[in-house]
């Protein structure tokens, strides 16, 4: 078969037959690739749409990632990059001609610098060939720009071109690791290595905790192992130690979709600030968009427009959507997990509330973002819910600042969420396992122990091989490959894992038997904790958070007593008389009520 139809020729012929030419592809795709394509200068826009290769046309290049040249040693024709900058930018020329020594403007990570092209390369299979110039429509390598490029970059001979949009990747930071050097003297080298890793890998995230720990966020267990290996062998070249892998979760609320609004009100400084907010879960059609859309980033205009349109069509959200989405977050996490809306129809003088929101919008949005980034269950980001402001009054004569409003809004959003049944949301992989037919039962047993949901099983005709495709929770994926090899005695091939979606865990982590039926089934105390409670307890123990016992104040069967401001003041007065209790100057009053 290899002599009759070589694989390389077959693949190349298929690409030429099925793929669009650069000219046709750019005319169709450029409006979606370039940020604010309508603002591109007319001369540059015309060159981009025509894929103009003439030397006089503006040169526009997009660098999508950096490649380590160590994997090309012995296969490179011509010189390679020096050791300190041993990375080649993998790029495509969209218009003009890219030449060695050409002055360019490079835009990366929001910063624009002026420099020149040191070297350009043509890709020849697995190797590189140094060239003097590269024309439009070609893929190439660019050397000497490692210090300027962070993950991706836009290069142009014109200074006023908008940047290209970054690569669309599935959700990142599913698995996180804390890394630190074995020898404290190597801390500086580790930091330099982490900077290089962040530049080179478009799907890795590097952060520093308040404790000084360096944490890398990866797409999965295999990706995490690869990042650690690259740090040790290439980027940092020091011995490092890692913590146990940590899986990211999210928090949400569930409940019947009714018109009843459970509102939480905060009254600060005897009425100087009155803030009421209610929390609602997203409808199913909106959840499907967030669940399946890998482009779920907070600045994606098309996704936000689609989300806003579906909420306007929903009866429970249509009136609250008259003023549109005020904010979406968590902004730092890069996805749309919660939105902030306003509905003052039930309040007295709605115009006054709307005017106050416009005046203090920055502080209110900052408080909402703080709540969206850290939920009340385990300080994880929120997912699939909306906060609706129903009342907002701030006394302008009280001398309040935005720093006082922010924690008020944050705590009110968290308390409003606690009025509903809460759930954890976990990441789910799409897992594919190839194996022989006689190992089918053992593979099913291993997957079922890890809460896998089988999608399909497809046999390979003409052989005893088959593959199983399933949805596997990310927290259950650790050690799967080793277990499959042991159970199948090496007959199972590698399990392929790819981020699929986020799934709400149906089990209530605060479940406590209350009804007669529940007590008869589980007893007064549940002997075995459900998976939601186990995962929540594990997260809280790792973070050192307080663990609510007996369901806390947020279990589904908990009855919330209404507490007025007068009752609160009476309680404080009694304590003051009996225990010589001195009330603080600024006292926060919290009370709950239901608007039906």
TrEMBL record:
This is Elongation factor Tu domain 2/Elongation factor G, domain IV/Elongation factor G C-terminus, putative. One of its GO terms (cellular component) is ribonucleoprotein complex. Keywords: Elongation factor, GTP-binding, Nucleotide-binding, Protein biosynthesis. CDD domains: aeEF2_snRNP_like_IV (cd01681), eEF2_snRNP_like_C (cd04096). Pfam families: EFG_C. The keyword Ubl conjugation does not apply. Residues 423-513 form the Elongation factor EFG domain.
